[in-house]
Amino acid sequence: MLESLWVWTLATGLISLILYLLGTWTHDHFSKKNVPHLKPVPFFGNMGPVTLRIASFPELVVGWYNRLKGNKFGGVYEFLNPVILLRDPELIKMVTVKDFEHFLDHRAPISEEAEPLFGKALFNLKGQRWKDMRSTLSPAFTSSKMKNMFVLITECGKQLTDFLEKCIKDKNLTIEGCKIEREGNILAVEMKDLFTRYTNDVIATSAFGISCDSLNNPGNEFYATGRYVTNFSGIRALIFFGYMFSPKLMKLLNIKFISKSSGNFFRSLVHNTMSTREEQGIVRPDMIHLLMQTKKGTVQGDDNGTTNVKSTNTKWDDDDITAQAFLFFLAGFDTASTLLCFASHLLAMHPDIQSRLQDEIDQTLKEDGGKLTYEAVHGMKYLDMVVSETLRLYPPAVLVDRRCVKQYTLPAEPRCTLKPGDGVYIPIYALHHDPDYFPDPEKFDPERFSDENKGNIKACTYLPFGSGPRNCIGSRFALMEAKIALVQLLSRFNLKVVPKTPIPIKISKSGFNMTIDGGFWIGLEQRVKNATKLQND
Ligand code: HEM
């Protein structure tokens, strides 16, 4: 009896020791290098609060940033992976811009072998392949290409506002599938549901060349698949954590981030669209057309769309092309709708700002005879200030990373040399909320971005689209898409607080998506004095 107790105690002790060693074997990385760092917890490192849903992702990052105050950089542990968090804007500039060649790649936990649709996409490509693909795709995002897509996006904005008007006017209309409720003359709308349908339709038409109308056809397969693949909460957040913790283990266990059916859905969609267009000689001003040109190496690169044919030596196959279309979808579906949700919430909460913005919209449309043009949208200064301030307060990308590819000594004290494979974090959300850079940081104040004030914003403290050559390739597209929706919405409706509007908002703790608890419920009231009815309507 005594003997078996001993065996049990010994076995338990041994297992605990092995587990402890397994869960901490990298956790002396920073102390050995004398780098200031946060104390890690076995296995979790410094990810515990978000993994256990004690904190939201932005709260976690602000916590790291504040605890490392007084240092230009510091170490944190993403589970077992040591990562350097850059606090100092000068250092961020060095890493992302000046010495960018040392930090070419994202860390990208999901590899090409594990998930080809992820791994082959621009965001995850590494080294020369990334350079080739980036320079091949860049001409697809010039202002002349954006101008061509403007019409497609405006059509989606019109579908959105027509649908809402129909819901308000026709009291007998049953609204199924969408999260919309009637409260007298006001529509209470869950904006995330509404705007993901809009961004879905925008990306469906401009990246895949198909028309969805997800408000009138709420259950369409494109939208359902989009919601699934862009959901980084619940079980999918756990899978993502799994990839962060150990990509090898996830591969070994054959746990996929994208289901086979969703992957096949996108593959056949892109493949069929390309074949149909090839066979029938269809040309449409959208991304799939540009991707087809990319494949042939004939994207026209200059902003006038004339000469300057771009070609690289790299050959891209159908899977490479599908991965880019898929990434545009992934990148555009959630981020742009998040921006629109927070903008609507902030405008409903600040009627004075909303009314000033509506004045600008009405005035601009009046001057242009009610026609919404590319130039008019881009000329609205106050609109730009509101959107910029929304992206400061609630950046859809809370944090971005880089992977060191060439040995690099950070130009700061204490001396820290990064080796190929080492990771760095750029804490976007925390920089945007640092009172040293943005006084009274929780205040929604578009004036920070006025012509007089925006010059005072310190370089590399405002980074909603990242920084340097690896920044967001779709930023112009995203801003145009969001501005079109806001102009169309605010020219026809007032945004109001309703009983279901969560006040104050609480950022969700359930995953990586930047969203809130309770849903973005906002009231829409048709404007009585609809100064200028859009001609494009
Ligand atoms: C408000 C909306 C958006 C936000 C806030 C956003 C933000 C970002 C950020 C922070 C990055 C990483 C940049 C870095 O590491 O420095 C990124 C990368 C990227 N974004 Fe966006 N994005 C948005 C919309 C879009 C849209 C609509 C598209 C495509 C149509 C897009 C395509 C991409 C791609 C392809 C990359 C990877 C670039 C590369 O690695 O070369 N994004 N985005």
TrEMBL record:
<dbReference type="InterPro" id="IPR017972">
    <property type="entry name" value="Cyt_P450_CS"/>
</dbReference>
<keyword id="KW-0256">Endoplasmic reticulum</keyword>
<dbReference type="GO" id="GO:0005506">
    <property type="term" value="F:iron ion binding"/>
</dbReference>
<comment type="similarity">
    <text>Belongs to the cytochrome P450 family.</text>
</comment>
<protein>
    <submittedName>
        <fullName>Cytochrome P450 9e2</fullName>
    </submittedName>
</protein>
<dbReference type="InterPro" id="IPR036396">
    <property type="entry name" value="Cyt_P450_sf"/>
</dbReference>
<keyword id="KW-0560">Oxidoreductase</keyword>
<keyword id="KW-0479">Metal-binding</keyword>
<dbReference type="InterPro" id="IPR002401">
    <property type="entry name" value="Cyt_P450_E_grp-I"/>
</dbReference>
<keyword id="KW-0349">Heme</keyword>
<dbReference type="GO" id="GO:0005789">
    <property type="term" value="C:endoplasmic reticulum membrane"/>
</dbReference>
<dbReference type="Pfam" id="PF00067">
    <property type="entry name" value="p450"/>
</dbReference>
<keyword id="KW-0472">Membrane</keyword>
<keyword id="KW-0492">Microsome</keyword>
<keyword id="KW-0408">Iron</keyword>
<dbReference type="InterPro" id="IPR050476">
    <property type="entry name" value="Insect_CytP450_Detox"/>
</dbReference>
<keyword id="KW-1133">Transmembrane helix</keyword>
<feature type="transmembrane region" description="Helical">
    <location>
        <begin position="6"/>
        <end position="23"/>
    </location>
</feature>
<dbReference type="GO" id="GO:0004497">
    <property type="term" value="F:monooxygenase activity"/>
</dbReference>
<dbReference type="GO" id="GO:0020037">
    <property type="term" value="F:heme binding"/>
</dbReference>
<dbReference type="GO" id="GO:0016705">
    <property type="term" value="F:oxidoreductase activity, acting on paired donors, with incorporation or reduction of molecular oxygen"/>
</dbReference>
<dbReference type="InterPro" id="IPR001128">
    <property type="entry name" value="Cyt_P450"/>
</dbReference>
<feature type="binding site" description="axial binding residue">
    <location>
        <position position="472"/>
    </location>
    <ligand>
        <name>heme</name>
    </ligand>
</feature>
<keyword id="KW-0812">Transmembrane</keyword>
<keyword id="KW-0503">Monooxygenase</keyword>
